[in-house]
C-alpha cells in the first residue's frame, strides 16, 4: 500500500455514501450536478470539492420554504422538486415540478416504450478481465 | 511620521504597512543589520520585530499603533546555537542541506531568513529555497524560488529570485511530480552556487498528501539537518525514520501570528501584482518554441473543417481539436473516422493561464500569463515582466492557475485540458 496522492477517491466515497443514504433520485442527480459544478470551479482541489459537497444539502422545515426558491420535497415514497411560486398558510404552489413516484406494480404497453437501458455489471470482465479477482484469499 | 529614539537592547515590533529609516545607530531585523541611512519597507500583513544594537534615531512612517515596544527579543538563544552547530558541521566543498518543517503559520520563513542572515554574517554563502507555492516569498505564487544571498535581507519577497521553477499551482497536490522535479532542479543549482541550502517547506504536513510529500522531500534531499518548528509533537510522524542527531526541535514563537484564508490570498496577490507590475505582451511564434505539460503542439498537425487547430497525438492519445465552440456530431461527420478520442479544447479558455518561459536548458527565464493562442498568426501572446531577448525563449511550460492582467488570482484550468 501507499498513501493517496490525490483526494479524488474522496469523491467516489461521497458518491457511495450518497447512494446508500439518499433514496430520492432527484436529490442524487442534483448533488452529482453540484459535484461537477464545484469540480469545474476548483479542479485542483478535489478535497475542497468533497468538503463543500458534505455541507451542501440543507434540511428545512416546511413552513420555512421561501417563494422563488427551489426545493426537494418528500411525501411518503414520492419525491418532488420544484420552485415555490406561491405560499399560503396551509399549502404551497410549486412550479417547474418533476416527480419521482413508486408503485408496487405497473402495467406498461410495450408499444409506448421509447428506450430501454440496463447497466452491464460485467463490463470490467469484458474490457479488462485481468483486473478481475476473486474476493477474499483462497487457501 | 514617528520619530523614535531607542536605546541599545530595546526591542520593538513593527506591523506593516510601515516604512522605517535608520537616521543614526544600528538595529537588527530577522538577523539582518540595518545601518545608518538604510530603509526597510514592511509590507501589509507582515510583522517584524527588531532589536536595537546601537542607540538609534528612527523615522517610521506608520500608524502609532503599528509600532509596539516588546519586553524581550523574539529570537531564542537556541537559534544562535544552531548557527554555530551548522558552521561546525559543514564540510568545505559540500552542500550542507537543512529542511525546515512546520505547520502553517509557525514562522518557517522568519526562521529561514534569520538563519541565512546569520550564516552570511559568518561569510558563508547560504541559499534559501522557498517551496511554499501557496505563500511564496521568493518569486510569484505557484513557483519554487531560490535566493542565493549576497547581502542580508529582511523580506525575501523584496528580493529578485536567483532561480525560479514553476509548479503551476498554489498547492503541490495534483502537481507532485513538478514539485519533486523542481526540488531536484533547485538542489543541482544550489550545489553550484551555495555552501548551505535552507529549504523552507509548505505547511502541508498531515494526511496522505502531506505525509507523501514530506517523505519524498526528505528522501530526495537527504538533509544534514531537519528543523522541526512545532507547537507540540505534530511533526514527529514525518521524521521517525531519521536519526535523532539530524533533528532539531524548536518551539513555535508565541509571536508567530495566524493568517486568515483571506489574508493569505491578499498576501499572494500582493507578491503576484508586484511581479507583473511592469509586464508587457510579447508574441512568440508557435514554431519557435517547444511546449511542456500539455498536448498542444506536441503532435502532428492536421486540417479538420470547422476547427482552429487540430493535431494527431501519440498512439491512443487521440486527437486534440481546438474549436471556437464545443464539437458537435455534425462537425465530426466530415472528419476522418480514425481520429481516436477527440480532446476538445475551446479557444479562449487559455486566457490567463500561468506559463513559464524556458530557455533551451529549461531554466525558467520568467513567469507570464497567456493572453491568447493566436491562431490567425500562429503565435502565443504572453504577458510577462521578462525584459530579456525574446529569441532566448525556447519553451513554454503551462501551469494550472489563471492570473489576471494585473497579477490577481483568476481561477484555474483543469490539468490536461489542452
Structure in words:
Chain A has 139 residues and is an alpha+beta fold. Chain A is 32% helix and 18% strand. Chain A has helices at 8-21, 25-41, 46-53, 123-127; strands spanning 70-75, 78-87, 92-100. Chain A has a three-stranded antiparallel β-sheet with strand order 1-2-3, with helices on one face. In chain A, helix 1 (8-21) runs parallel beside helix 3 (46-53) and helix 2 runs antiparallel to helix 3. With 418 residues, chain B is of the alpha+beta class. Chain B contains six helices and 25 strands. In chain B, a hairpin with a 5-residue loop joins strand 21 (353-358) and strand 22. In chain B, helix 1 crosses helix 2 (108-121) and helix 3 (176-193) runs parallel beside helix 4. The model of chain B has no long low-confidence stretch (mean pLDDT 96). The chains are: A alpha+beta (139), B alpha+beta (418). The interface between A and B is medium-sized, with 13 and 17 residues.
Radius of gyration of chain A, in Å, reads: 21 Å
Question: Structural class of the helix and strand makeup of chain A?
Answer: alpha+beta
Q: Distance between the terminal alpha carbons of chain B, to the nearest Å?
A: 53 Å
Q: State mean pLDDT of chain A (0 to 100 scale).
A: 93
Q: Show the largest interface.
A: A-B, 13 and 17 residues
Count the helices of chain B. How many?
Answer: 6
Helical content of chain A stands at 25-40%
**Biggest sheet features of chain A:** 3 strands, antiparallel
Overall strand count of chain A: 3
CA-based shape of chain A: flat
The average pLDDT value of chain B, as a whole number, equals: 96
The low-pLDDT segments of chain A are none
Query: What is the first-to-last residue Cα distance of chain A?
Result: 22 Å
Task: Give the SSE layout.
The complex is a heterodimer of chains A (139) and B (418).
Chain A: H1 8-21, H2 25-41, H3 46-53, E1 70-75, E2 78-87, E3 92-100, H4 123-127
Antiparallel strand pairs in A: 1-2, 2-3
Chain B: E1 2-6, E2 11-15, E3 18-29, E4 32-34, E5 39-42, E6 47-61, E7 67-70, H1 77-89, E8 96-102, H2 108-121, E9 126-130, E10 143-148, E11 163-166, H3 176-193, E12 196-200, H4 207-221, E13 225-230, E14 247-251, H5 261-276, E15 280-285, E16 290-292, E17 300-301, E18 309-312, E19 319-323, H6 329-333, E20 342-346, E21 353-358, E22 364-374, E23 379-384, E24 395-403, E25 409-412
Parallel strand pairs in B: 8-12, 8-13, 9-12, 13-14, 16-24, 19-20
Antiparallel strand pairs in B: 1-6, 2-6, 2-7, 3-4, 3-5, 3-6, 9-10, 10-11, 15-23, 17-18, 18-19, 21-22, 21-24, 22-23, 24-25
Helix pairs in contact in B: 1-2, 3-4
Amino acid at each position: 500500500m501507499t498513501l493517496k496522492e490525490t483526494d479524488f477517491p474522496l469523491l467516489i466515497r461521497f458518491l457511495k455514501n450518497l447512494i446508500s443514504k439518499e433514496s430520492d433520485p432527484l436529490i442524487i442527480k442534483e448533488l452529482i450536478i453540484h459535484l461537477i459544478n464545484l469540480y469545474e470551479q476548483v479542479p485542483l482541489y478535489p478535497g475542497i470539492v468533497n468538503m463543500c459537497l458534505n455541507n451542501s444539502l440543507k434540511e428545512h422545515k416546511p413552513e420555512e420554504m421561501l417563494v422563488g426558491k427551489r426545493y426537494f420535497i418528500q411525501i411518503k415514497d414520492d419525491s418532488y422538486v420544484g420552485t415555490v411560486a406561491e405560499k399560503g398558510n396551509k399549502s404551497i404552489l410549486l412550479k417547474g415540478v418533476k416527480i419521482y413516484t413508486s408503485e408496487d406494480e405497473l402495467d406498461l404497453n410495450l408499444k409506448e416504450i421509447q428506450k430501454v437501458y440496463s447497466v452491464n455489471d460485467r463490463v470490467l470482465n469484458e474490457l479488462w478481465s485481468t483486473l478481475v479477482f476473486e474476493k477474499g484469499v483462497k487457501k | 511620521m514617528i520619530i523614535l529614539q531607542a536605546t541599545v537592547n530595546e526591542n520593538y515590533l513593527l506591523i506593516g504597512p510601515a516604512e522605517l529609516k535608520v537616521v543614526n545607530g544600528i538595529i537588527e531585523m530577522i538577523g539582518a543589520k540595518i545601518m545608518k541611512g538604510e530603509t526597510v519597507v514592511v509590507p501589509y500583513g507582515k510583522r517584524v520585530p527588531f532589536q536595537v544594537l546601537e542607540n538609534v534615531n528612527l523615522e517610521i512612517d506608520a500608524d502609532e499603533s503599528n509600532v509596539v515596544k516588546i519586553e524581550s527579543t523574539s529570537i531564542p538563544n537556541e537559534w544562535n546555537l544552531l548557527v554555530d552547530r551548522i558552521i561546525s558541521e559543514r564540510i568545505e566543498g559540500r552542500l550542507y542541506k537543512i529542511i525546515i518543517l512546520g505547520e502553517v503559520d509557525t514562522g518557517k520563513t522568519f526562521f529561514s531568513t534569520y538563519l541565512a542572515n546569520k550564516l552570511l554574517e559568518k561569510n558563508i554563502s547560504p541559499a534559501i529555497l522557498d517551496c511554499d507555492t501557496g505563500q511564496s516569498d521568493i518569486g510569484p505564487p505557484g513557483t519554487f524560488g531560490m535566493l542565493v544571498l549576497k547581502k542580508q535581507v529582511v523580506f525575501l519577497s523584496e528580493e529578485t529570485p536567483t532561480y525560479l521553477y514553476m509548479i503551476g499551482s498554489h498547492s503541490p497536490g495534483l502537481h507532485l511530480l513538478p514539485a519533486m522535479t523542481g526540488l531536484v532542479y533547485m538542489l543541482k543549482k544550489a550545489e553550484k552556487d551555495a555552501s548551505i541550502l535552507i529549504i523552507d517547506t509548505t505547511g502541508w504536513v498531515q494526511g496522505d498528501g502531506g505525509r507523501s510529500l514530506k517523505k519524498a522531500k526528505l528522501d530526495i534531499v537527504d538533509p544534514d539537518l531537519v528543523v522541526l518548528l512545532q507547537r507540540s509533537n505534530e511533526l514527529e510522524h514525518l521524521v521517525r525514520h531519521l536519526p535523532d542527531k539530524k533533528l532539531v526541535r524548536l518551539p513555535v514563537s508565541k509571536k508567530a501570528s495566524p493568517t486568515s484564508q483571506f489574508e493569505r490570498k491578499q498576501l499572494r496577490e500582493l507578491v503576484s501584482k508586484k511581479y507583473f507590475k511592469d509586464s508587457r505582451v510579447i508574441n512568440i511564434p508557435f514554431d519557435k518554441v517547444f511546449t511542456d505539460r500539455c498536448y498542444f503542439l506536441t503532435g502532428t498537425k492536421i486540417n479538420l473543417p470547422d476547427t482552429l487547430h487540430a493535431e494527431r497525438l501519440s498512439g491512443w492519445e487521440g486527437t486534440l481539436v481546438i474549436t471556437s465552440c464545443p464539437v458537435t456530431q455534425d462537425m465530426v461527420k466530415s472528419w476522418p473516422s480514425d481520429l481516436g478520442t477527440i480532446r476538445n479544447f475551446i479557444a479562449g479558455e487559455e486566457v490567463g493561464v500561468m506559463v513559464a518561459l524556458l530557455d533551451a536548458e529549461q531554466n525558467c527565464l520568467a513567469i507570464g500569463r497567456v493572453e491568447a493562442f493566436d491562431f490567425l498568426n500562429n503565435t502565443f501572446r504572453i504577458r510577462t515582466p521578462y525584459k530579456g531577448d525574446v529569441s532566448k525563449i525556447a519553451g513554454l511550460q503551462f501551469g494550472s492557475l489563471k492570473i489576471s492582467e494585473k497579477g490577481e488570482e483568476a481561477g484555474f484550468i483543469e490539468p490536461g485540458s489542452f
